[in-house]
Amino acid sequence: MTTALIDLRTVARDHRGLGIALAGELDFHTAGRVEPRLAELAGFGHRNMVLDLSGISFCDSSGIELFLRLHQRCRSAGTQLLLCGVPPLLVKSMQVLGVDRSLPLAVT
After folding, report:
1. For the segment 1-35, what is each residue's pLDDT rounded down to a tens digit?
2. How many other CB atoms are there within 10 angstroms of residue 18's CB atom?
3. CATH number of the CATH domain containing 78
4. How far apart are CA 49 and CA 71, in angstroms?
5. How far is CA 81 from CA 4, 38, 75, 92, in A?
6. Residue 89 lies inside a defined structural domain of this protein
7. Where are the beta strands (DSSP E) in the chain?
8. Domain-located, residue 50
9. 3-state secondary structure string, 19-37?
10. Is 6 exposed, middle or buried (0-12, 13-18, 19+ CB in 10 A)?
11. Model's pTM, two decimal places?
12. Would you say 22 and 34 are in contact if contact means Cβ atoms under 8 Å apart?
């Protein structure tokens, strides 16, 4: 059995907000590993939280559900969440599920 890897890095933190990069495979197992840290960061009271997904090589419905929960946590904390660098296949999945209308995406 191989273990899927996910990397979460804080890449920027300043007066404009918080930048976070995710890289690797985001599935049932790895979403559970990064969600506590993302939830913690969402509660820090930053005005903006930018999540760079350009390094995501795979994302299933567990990852998409994670983004929806994170969006709700951010809204509750008064933080604006923005997903950027979203891979085309993930954008397509979000569109099929209709969550692209709920999640703020910056497609590159």
Report:
1. 455 689 999 888 887 789 999 999 999 999 999 99
2. 20
3. 3.30.750.24
4. 10
5. 26, 11, 8, 20
6. yes
7. 6-14, 17-26, 48-59, 80-84, 105-106
8. yes
9. EEEEEEEECHHHHHHHHHH
10. buried
11. 0.90
12. yes
User: Does residue 81 fall inside a structural domain?
Assistant: yes
User: Which domain range does residue 67 map to?
Assistant: 6-106
Classify strands 80-84 and 48-59 as parallel, antiparallel or unpaired. Answer: parallel
- For 51-71, the pLDDT digits (tens) are 999 999 999 999 999 999 999
Domain count, the chain: 1
- Residue that has been written with the tokens 């907000």 in this structure: 17
Report yes or no on 59 lying in a domain.
yes
Q: Residue 14: exposed, middle, or buried by beta-carbon count in 10 A (0-12, 13-18, 19+)? A: exposed
Q: Whole-angstrom Cα distance, residue 89 to residue 40?
A: 28
